[in-house]
Every structure is written in C-alpha cells, then in structure tokens.
Amino acid sequence: MKDFESIFPKIDDVPTEFRCKFPIIQNEYLLNGEIKKWQGEYSQVFSPIYIKNGSEYTNHIGSYPMMGETQAYEALDAAVEAYNNGNGEWPAMRVEDRINRIKKFVILMKEQRDEVINLLMWEIGKSHKDSAKEFDRTVEYINDTIDELKNIDRDASKFTISQGIIAQIRRAPLGVVLCMGPFNYPLNETFATLIPALIMGNTIIFKPPRFGVLLHYPLLKAFQEAFPKGVVNTVYGQGEQVITPLMKSGKINVLAFIGTSRVADILKTQHPKPHRLKSILGLEAKNPAIILEDADLDATVKECVLGALSYNGQRCTALKILFVHEKIADDFLNKLSNAVEELISGMPWDKDVDITPLPETGKTEYLSELIKDAEANGAKVINPRGGDFNKSFFFPAILYNVNEKMRVYHEEQFGPIIPVVKYKNIQEPLNYVIDSDFGQQASIFGKNTDQISELIDTLVNQVCRVNINSQCQRGPDNFPFTGRKDSAEGTLSTHDALRAFSIRTLCAAKENGKNKDIIRDILRNEKSDFLSTDFIL
Q1: pLDDT (tens digit, 9 = 90+) per residue, 105-163?
Q2: Could you tell me which of 205, 429, 184, 196 has the C-alpha nearest to residue 313?
Q3: CATH 3.40.605.10 boundaries in the chain
Q4: In the chain, where does the domain assigned CATH 3.40.309.10 lie?
Q5: How far, in Å, are 55, 127, 350, 422 from residue 10 at the CA level?
Q6: Of 56, 183, 187, 441, which residue is most buried, by most CB within 10 angstroms?
Q7: What global pTM score does this model have?
Q8: How far apart are CA 65 and CA 206, in angstroms?
Q9: What's the pLDDT score for residue 6?
Q10: Cα angle at 35 between 34 and 38, to 5 degrees?
Q11: Is 44 exposed, middle or buried (0-12, 13-18, 19+ CB in 10 A)?
C-alpha cells in the first residue's frame, strides 16, 4: 500500500512505454465516410491520474469536439442515406461480404492495440493488465460473432416446406442504430452492441462514453477504411445537444444503450414513434451475495473480493451487497478485512495493482457521503484504511452492519464500497432480492445442496443468472447476458446480439409447379441475395 500523500507520480516515475504525448487534441470525426476536421468548441478530457509537478498536480490529457444539433442531423442523414430503406450498399450486401469487411476492421483495429490500451489506462484508470484484457477480449468477441453469424446463415440457407407453403427464412437488418456504451468498459461493451448491429447490415451512429472518448480516436481510420460511407458515423458532446435531436427525429430504429435506467427512460420517451423503436439496454444492478452458514470462508472471501472490487467495483456485474449468516459473520468479516487490506494500490501500470484511481468527477466525495450516511445509521467501517481517499483515489471500505435505513443498502454505489448485511433467516436476503428494482444476477455461497437448490429455484425468477460459489460476471460471451426489472432490456451474447439487431424475414410461395420453377430459376442464376442457397464455409 502506497502512502496516500505520494500515491500520484511525477512524470519521470511513469514508465516510458506508458507515456502518451499529451494533450491529445481530437480535431477529427467520422461522417459519411470522411474523416472531417472539427472547427468548433472542444470538451476537455481530464485523467483520474494526477501527475505531480512540484507542489502542483495536473491531469489534463486532451480534448474532443463539442458537437451540436447540426452535426447530429448530419450524422443521421448519412446513416439514413446509407441504409436507404434497406437498399443501401451495406444492408443489401451479401453476408459473406459483410463478414469480410468486419475481418478487415479487426486487422486495422489490432494495429492500434498499444495506443488504445494506454488510453484506457489514462482515461479511466484501468490497470494495464485489465486494459489489455479488454482489448483482446473485444477482438475475440468480434471473431466469435463472425463464427456465430456463419452458423446462422448456414441454417438459413435451406428451405422449409409446411402446409403446402415453400419458404426461406433469413434475418434482415432493422435500420439506423444509435450506439452508446459505458465508461467502465468503453471498448468491449460498446463493441458488444456496435459489432453485431453492424454485421447484421444496420448503419450506425456512435457516441463514445463521457469517460473513454479519446481511446476510440485511433480507430476512426479503421472504421473509415473497412466500411462503405455512411455506415459508421461518430458524434461527440452533451446528450441534450446531440442525442436528443436524434431521438426526437423518429429516424432512430434501434437504441443500443448501456448506462442508467433514468437516462434510458428519457431517451425512449423522446422518440415520437415508440413502437418503431427497438431498445437493447444494459442498465443498473445491485447484485447480492448470499453467504450461507456452511460456506467455505476462504474461498468465499476470495470470490467476494474479486466480485466486489475488480476494477474498483465499477462493473454492473459487481457484487454490490453481501448478506452473511450471523453465525459466521465475525469470522467472515475478519477474513474479508484482511484480504481487502492486502490489496495493492497504485497507478494502472504498477505491477499486480488492484486498486486504481476513479475516473468520475466527484466520485470519492459521493462514496464518502455513503459512508457517513451509513455510519449515522449504525454501520461501521471494518477495515483500517477503508474510505481513505486522495483526489481520485479511494481505498475500499467494508461497511457493517448495513440495514434498510442506509442509502448504500438501496443505491448502486458503483465503486469500492462493500456493504455487509447480517441475517438470521434466509428469507431476509430473499426479500431484498424480491423487493429490489434490479434483477441482473446473484451469487450463492455454501455447501448444503438442499438449501442451495431451494435458493436457485427462487432466484431464477428474480434475476437472470445465479452463480454458485462464484462471483457475478458477464462471460463467457456465448452465455446470455441480460436482466429483469430495471436492469436490462434485450439479451446480449454472441448468439443473442445478432438476433437483437435483426428480424426474421421470409419469402414464401405456394408449393406448385409454376412457383417451383420461379424459385429454381432465381436460385440457379443467383438473381437474389436473399433467396439463395449459398453456404458460407
């Protein structure tokens, strides 16, 4: 654990390979196949990493375009024209050709790996190890998506005959997709919607997250070179200035948004034709861990520390509240406190670092307010350094005994606070899950198979994933990822996302000699891209 007064480095302390030429002035954006120069106002980018210079600290690392309604409409017009009611080059392109364009993008993307990883560290404080993992996992996700689309298209290459009707059923794109990803996984979770939306033939308007804008800058040229004009267009700026006009236009067909339910509700109500808008949303969660009295404490503590504090707890899948049986509460807390105090704090490039600075402005103050509120209502910070902070750095705090009077019992802290609730009756944590506004995941820790099975059967009707003796998590990417209640809308995985951004469409004809001749002629002479038996190898 570094001394809090010296947690932030001097520039000479930063390893050479992780230094960037700051400030990075992003004066370009992608519109209708052209990388255009920005001539207007800029929004400043500040890093969670402060650099010490004498007695002063600096964290300004760049700027990006502060666009407005005019640029939003230009991006919309480009995307609408490129889609052209489904007749544009991209939506009408054969699946195999779209796959080849995506493969080209991956090649170009990988050329920017080191720069994107460095910017992930500097913009959102993610460790080098996790930043590299995010990039590589994103590339893997794209390749897995390609493989899954091949499987879908192979299945669709055959004809179905039922009740005297011949039909071929394929998937068709939906139109213009507005993609908005989160700051905590600004590359991976953004691309988890953007790539399947693209590969299915939709056109894209892409707004990077508020924290994590610059890391997409090196990829603009890759988007430009890989895809036809107007297929991918970028917008930057405040949501009220660029997103509101897009939604109010009624020309957005799909909203792909990962963020808060409050913002999602606003965006959806702005659309004048809600039945024409399809939403794929990843929203808040307050995932609980239910720790039974027979739990293996060492294994449970290890999983809970990972689940609650990986990337400083800034994950929607993080364990955000722990319910521990009263008979083992003291032993559990002692082991948990020791494990948290052993975590390594520092900068993202430090070896084996666990806890890094937080990117959100005012986050440390917010977390401190949660602790004060909990303490005022009877809770205590268990671990010695819990809640200590310096600028953007906040050391994890274990709060015990948390109850329903406290804000942290209800609010998604999205940061390094671990609320612990002592329970006597198993119905207490179950009631918490049932009454919660959120329903993403839950974790059960224990050995009694009778009790675990009863909990599973209750929890699967409240959340969308139940984890046994393991932390909550998203992956593997071929598993469905979604939530109930206010936690999600739609399902994401390499399998489900392709379906989320497309619709089943069929061509059908009565089974008679004349129609069979027509279909044979179309197939034999390859007159249609839709009605086809082409098989992607």
Answers
A1: 999 999 999 999 999 999 999 999 999 999 999 999 999 999 999 999 999 999 999 99
A2: 184
A3: 13-282
A4: 287-477
A5: 11, 18, 14, 44
A6: 441
A7: 0.96
A8: 14
A9: 85
A10: 125
A11: exposed
The answer to whether the beta carbons of residues 178 and 205 sit under 8 Å apart is: yes
Ramachandran bin of 346, using left for φ above 0, alpha for ψ from -120 to 50, beta for the remaining angles: left
Q: Which fold has domain 287-477?
A: Aldehyde Dehydrogenase; Chain A, domain 2 (3.40.309)
Type of residue found at 17 = E
The arithmetic mean of pLDDT across residues 197-219, rounded, is 97
In angstroms, how far is CA 244 from the centroid of its own chain?
21
**∠ CA 202-204-209, rounded to 5°:** 140
> With contact defined as beta carbons under 8 Å apart, do 267 and 255 qualify?
yes
**C-alpha–C-alpha distance, residues 97 and 400, integer Å:** 57
Whether the per-residue pLDDT at 292 is higher than 60: the answer is yes
CB 104 within 8 A of CB 225: yes
Residue type, 300: T
Q: How far apart (Å, rounded) are the C-alpha atoms in residues 419 and 437?
A: 18
Distance (Å) of CA 481 to CA 382, 445, 475, 484? 34, 21, 8, 11
d(CA 327, CA 296): 13
Q: If 0-12 CB within 10 Å is exposed, 13-18 middle and 19+ buried, where does residue 283 land?
A: buried
Q: Is 513 exposed, middle or buried (0-12, 13-18, 19+ CB in 10 A)?
A: exposed
> Residue 512: is its pLDDT beyond 90?
yes
Alpha-carbon gap, residue 54 to 406, rounded angstroms: 41
In the three-class reduction of DSSP (H, G, I as helix; E, B as strand; rest coil), residue 167 is classed as strand
Per CATH, domain 13-282 is 3.40.50.1470: no
Strand, coil or helix: what is 51? Answer: strand
Q: Please report the pLDDT score of residue 1 as a whole number.
A: 45
Other CB atoms within 10 A of residue 248 CB: 13
Residue with tokens 């889609």: 83
AA identity, residue 258: I
